[in-house]
Amino acid sequence: DVKVTQSSRYLVKRTGEKVFLECVQDMDHENMFWYRQDPGLGLRLIYFSYDVKMKEKGDIPEGYSVSREKKERFSLILESASTNQTSMYLCASRTSVGTDTQYFGPGTRLTVL
Amino acid sequence: DQQVKQNSPSLSVQEGRISILNCDYTNSMFDYFLWYKKYPAEGPTFLISISSIKDKNEDGRFTVFLNKSAKHLSLHIVPSQPGDSAVYFCAGMNNNNDMRFGAGTRLTVKP
Lengths: 113, 111
What we know:
The structure holds 2 protein chains of 2 kinds.
Chain A: E1 4-6, E2 10-13, E3 19-25, E4 31-38, E5 42-49, E6 56-57, E7 65-70, E8 73-78, E9 87-94, E10 103-104, E11 108-112
Parallel strand pairs in A: 2-11
Antiparallel strand pairs in A: 1-3, 3-8, 4-5, 4-9, 5-6, 7-8, 9-10, 9-11
Chain B: E1 4-5, E2 10-14, E3 19-25, E4 30-38, E5 45-51, E6 56-59, E7 62-67, E8 72-77, E9 86-94, E10 99-101, E11 105-110
Parallel strand pairs in B: 2-11
Antiparallel strand pairs in B: 1-3, 3-8, 4-5, 4-9, 6-7, 7-8, 9-10, 9-11
């Protein structure tokens, strides 16, 4: 059974803190993605990775960075959290072959005070 | 610039009736379209997809229609059930496997 896990379901941080969101998949997928979900805006792509140590900017990369040191793990980093980064963060993974769907983790609701 | 648009933020239907969720796209490079369903506190899960070379794909109570000339697709749920109440996201994917999502439509099916 396909599984994507995220390190925290809920997280509360203060403005200026460095925040790490971890995502792990057990399907040996090459591609991994980070999205944020906001009301009225849907799922917006922050960063994605096609392979280990590779990363590509999505549509809204500002204020974020990522790390992919191992195939199964994709980390999203907020270098200095701001209140406008309060959101639901969703990680997804997908095989690089064909048009298989993306598989999503359960999400991390981050609140920045 | 939203490449995928779901202009109805919410939809309410009676149990047993048809639910029709609409989606428009602007990127003509999309060659595959997908619908995802999302319950609160869970990640989105894949529901149904359609290739751009088809105009219809059916899976049980769920049918997706694609009108490529109008850059429009719709998801039909017949008959609707209370368990279908969720947020539905439409997504388009190009041949680089880049995927873009719409804003979502919250469907409420009333018993």
